Task: inverse folding
């Protein structure tokens, strides 16, 4: 992990270029800045990728799905880092970043959904996660706006939230103030005789640095100059997501994140402090870049089944973005050449995992090895075909 010691600031400041200003690039750039690095971030449209869409659920327990043993440990470790990360950024930026440690309530829309939640609870408990199954009437005492269709629920105290737009804006301001931000696309990396020396920008100019970190989300593999042996197996998994404003007379609509399974289909409502609620999210691989009408219809249908008052709210925003998916849903983080580190493929959990990913990325940039089990789990080359001689 990056250590923030006095000797960091005394040592000769080394330079790093971070390609991409989504949550991963920004959080990693900030770790590096904090450790005394001279940081340049380049992005033609900062904070506009998947991180712009994200609800910001920090949900290691309710996001558990079967057969992802590597991911569980990473998600739990990341969740533990969040309170400190959010507090540090808020203090440095002098403003809150929308980190709330309110619990999550997962609701069942019918008897089969309740059974599915009960089955999952077995796995969640086996993994040491804290949860409590409650009746629908108890759930309604907690959240009076729940609809009559809710037949049971599970309380998850350790699944929290952050507002990705607020924390990214805070990080971005800190980086603009203490580092350098270049609003340009990086076309690729360039090499000296034996190592990566910097990036080539879209206007044909170049930037030089001791290290380059590629955190360009889904576009990371498109940069030129990456090692031939490196293939980043990224695929777009689109998500539609809505933002609504609750009228004063209905506030608060819900006081904690309300997730649910409605006839097998997942949906969530994440309430913000400003009276808005985020409703998400679909998961589709149909290549449709804008919001899907079917997707939006499904979200509204299922959200209003959990919380009927949704239908009385104002629709503020409909957004679709692609998550950077990987074959095993685990990110791709590693030092792939001298002077070159990649950190991408955070798929469905990039906001949660950014607290950990930023530290791992910063460690690699600084030339520190990751703990072997973690290094193997996130190795960007783990899918490369094994050569048989
Ligand atoms: C609808 C939806 C809901 C989600 N909800 C959650 C959630 O509740 N919790 C959670 O943990 N995760 C959630 N996620 C997942 C999360 O949003 C992603 O895993 C995460 O945002 C990935 O961050 P990133 O920084 O790698 O990529 P991005 O946010 O996509 O950032 C990449 C950046 O790189 C820039 N870029 C691209 N190419 C270049 C280039 N050549 N040069 C310079 N810059 C470049 C882009 O402009 C962009 O700003 C959600 C995702 C979606 C789509």
Result:
């Amino acid at each position: 992990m990056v250590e923030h010691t006095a000797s960091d600031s005394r040592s000769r400041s080394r330079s790093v270029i971070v390609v991409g200003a989504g949550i991963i690039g920004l959080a990693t750039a900030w770790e590096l800045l904090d450790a005394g690095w001279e940081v340049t971030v380049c992005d033609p449209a900062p904070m506009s990728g998947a991180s712009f869409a994200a609800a910001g659920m920090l949900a290691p327990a309710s996001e558990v799905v079967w057969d992802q043993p590597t991911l569980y440990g990473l998600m739990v470790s990341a969740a533990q880092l969040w309170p400190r990360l959010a507090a540090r950024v808020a203090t440095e930026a002098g403003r809150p970043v929308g980190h709330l440690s309110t619990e999550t309530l997962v609701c069942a829309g019918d008897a089969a959904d309740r059974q599915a939640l009960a089955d999952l609870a077995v796995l969640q408990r086996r993994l040491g996660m804290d949860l409590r199954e409650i009746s629908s009437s108890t759930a309604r005492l907690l959240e009076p706006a729940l609809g009559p269709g809710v037949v049971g629920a599970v309380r998850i105290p350790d699944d929290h939230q952050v507002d990705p737009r607020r924390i990214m804006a805070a990080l971005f301001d800190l980086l603009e103030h203490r580092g350098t931000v270049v609003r340009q696309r990086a076309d690729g990396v360039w090499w000296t005789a034996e190592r990566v020396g910097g990036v080539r920008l879209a206007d044909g100019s170049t930037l030089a640095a001791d290290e380059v970190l590629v955190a360009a989300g889904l576009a990371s593999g498109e940069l030129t100059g990456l090692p031939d042996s490196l293939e980043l197996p990224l695929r777009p998994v689109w998500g539609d997501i809505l933002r609504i404003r609750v009228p004063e007379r209905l506030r608060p609509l819900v006081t904690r994140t309300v997730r649910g399974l409605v006839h097998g289909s997942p949906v969530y409502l994440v309430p913000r402090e400003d009276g808005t609620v985020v409703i998400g999210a679909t998961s589709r691989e149909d290549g449709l870049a804008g919001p899907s009408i079917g997707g939006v219809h499904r979200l509204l249908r299922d959200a209003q089944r959990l919380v009927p008052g949704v239908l009385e709210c104002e629709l503020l925003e409909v957004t679709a973005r692609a998550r950077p998916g990987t074959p095993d849903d685990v990110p791709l983080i590693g030092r792939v050449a001298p002077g070159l580190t990649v950190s991408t493929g955070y798929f469905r959990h990039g906001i949660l995992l950014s607290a950990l990913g930023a530290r791992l990325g910063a460690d690699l940039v600084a030339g520190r090895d990751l703990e072997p089990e973690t290094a193997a789990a996130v190795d960007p080359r783990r899918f490369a075909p094994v050569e048989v001689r």
Q: What stands out?
A: Residues 69-93 form the longest helix (25 residues).
